[in-house]
Amino acid sequence: MAQPFTLYKLIVLYMLDNSQSPLTNSQISDFILEKEYTNYFHLQQTLSELIDSSLIESHTRQNASYYTMTEKGRTTLHFFCDEISSEIKDEIQKFLKKIGTELQIKPVILADSYKTDLSDYCVRLQLKERGASLIDMTLLVPTQEAASEACSHWKGKAQDLYAQILEALI
Asked: Is 72 helix (H, G, I), strand (E, B) or coil?
């Protein structure tokens, strides 16, 4: 059996490898803390070490950290996957199936912004439902304030705007 921190890392890698989409810090924490594998602080240390060793990447959107596995992480998991018990693998599969079903039922509204090389800002707005992308658009806006406003308003108006765009096009 793997050492505790090694096992925590392998669990996170296995979760990311078997997930259909990036997982949030909250989703990973929910699983690991619910199963009482470790405490919150050890989990955060584990995630930090995985990032530092380039086995996973972290992206922040709307004040949430989303994790994805790198190719180096996949290779590492391939070599050490047998260190994770079949019981833990089954628990992870059940958890991912549960959250996947939850995510498919309710629409996912994402908004993110970033600065361009030309001193403008790009705003990426997405609406997803049942795992499918309904709309994914990127807008160029002049200021950071405009980008923040667009992201904020998108959350409350995404479904209505999508319906209006669809109606105008069809």
From this structure: helix
Q: Which residues pair with 140 in a beta bridge?
A: 122
CATH topology of domain 4-104: Arc Repressor Mutant, subunit A (1.10.10)
Torsion of CA 30, 34, 40, 42, to 10 degrees: -110
HEC secondary structure over 3-60: CHHHHHHHHHHHHHHHCCCCEEHHHHHHHHHHCCCCCHHHHHHHHHHHHHCCCEEEEE
pLDDT in tens, 37-63: 989 899 999 999 999 999 999 988 766
- 64: β partners: 61
Q: Are 113 and 148 in contact (CB under 8 A)?
A: yes
- Cβ proximity of 5 and 42 under 8 Å: yes
Sorted by where each begins, the domain ranges of the chain are: 4-104, 108-169
The answer to whether the predicted template modeling score (pTM) of the entire model surpasses 0.70 is no
